Amino acid sequence: MKKVLEGLDEQSIPDGLMGFSTHDDCAIYPLPDGSKLIQTVDFFTPIVDDPFEFGRIAASNSLSDIYAMGGKPLFALNIACFPSDELPLEVLTEILNGGISIAKEAGIPILGGHTVKDKEPKYGLVVSGIVEDGKALKNSTAKPGDVLILTKPIGTGIISTAIKRDKAPSDMIQTAIEIMAQLNLCASTSMEGISISACTDVTGFGLLGHLSEMCKNSNVSATLEFNSVPFIEGVFELAQNGIIPGGTKKNLNFVQDDIDFSDILIDYQKLMLADAQTSGGLLISVPLAHSQELIAKLKDNHALAYSIIGQVYNPSDKLIYVN
Ligand code: CO
Ligand code: CO
């Protein structure tokens, strides 16, 4: 992906607009009244069998980037691919209904969309949102003295692979679905009124990938405490048994040189930290002095996780030190 972006022709982007450069979560476009329009798009192939649940997960995942920027979603458009020769159209209806149910939870309408005939179903949303002037949260502004908080447990990539290999018990599948379908709205609401340094959502690059991006863009280093990172129940055992997605292995390879791992960590534990997430939680960098207030609000708003997983320091040899 990086290679593709590097090969793009240069555009002259006016001041105040934000695009590819820091790999932040949304594009930003200033509006005449001083507020900012933020926009994001994401869509992917099914990771669970149930079409309605797939729709919920994909929609929640698409909305996540808006919440990661501290914004409010306004409306969405569907983007879908569907093999209409091979699957009954009711399946597509179910997928779209899953999307509608999540849009309702987010308090926004889905105002249209587009479907293309394709061999494999794909679904997601284009989401437009708004953020008040000066309130957009970035991934490039973490500060030494911050602590890091993650709002959902890790392991949905490993569980998705277990589902494909028929190695995931049904209660584990249900837990993973509920985690992936939960909107980051509750985490985003919790940040309101607290001075947050930086935020991003944990998705395809995994916790290590998104954290290293945050550190690099903020010119800081961070420590990560393996034992403080929340994992979904059962993920330890799956990872130990070698159930690891290809994307997760690639993630670890990609960031390995920027990370100093404690000698006591075993390879499968490093892979767990790099696990490619779908619709993961928010990774929040908050000054230590405000962290307990944030944790209390995350608890009140029923976030799925809220423990401190690491700390931010002045830049050092490595981006991340994992203890
Ligand atoms: Co994102
Ligand atoms: Co995205």
Description:
It is a single chain. The protein is globular. With 323 residues, it is α+β, with helices and mostly antiparallel strands. The strands form two sheets. Strands 7-10-6-11-8-12-9 form a seven-stranded mixed sheet, with helices on both faces. Strands 1-2-5-3-4 form a five-stranded mixed sheet, covered by helices on one side. The mean pLDDT is 94. It contains eleven helices and twelve strands. Helix 3 (89-106) links the parallel strand 3 (72-82) and strand 4 (110-117). Helix 2 runs parallel beside helix 5. The protein binds cobalt (II) ion (CO) (2 copies). One cobalt (II) ion binds next to helix 2 and strand 7. One cobalt (II) ion binds at residues 25, 65, 68, 200-201, 203.
Average pLDDT number: 94
Strand content: 15-25%
In this entry the ligands are: cobalt (II) ion
| Strand arrangement across the biggest beta sheet | 7-10-6-11-8-12-9
Strand segment count: 12
Uncertain runs are none
Total helical elements: 11
Provide the gyration radius in Å: 19 Å
Taking the sheet with the most strands, its summary is: 7 strands, mixed
The ordered H/E elements are HEEHEHEEEHHHEHEHHEHEHEE
Report helical residue fraction: 25-40%
Question: Distance N terminus to C terminus?
Answer: 30 Å
Structural class: alpha+beta
Shape: globular
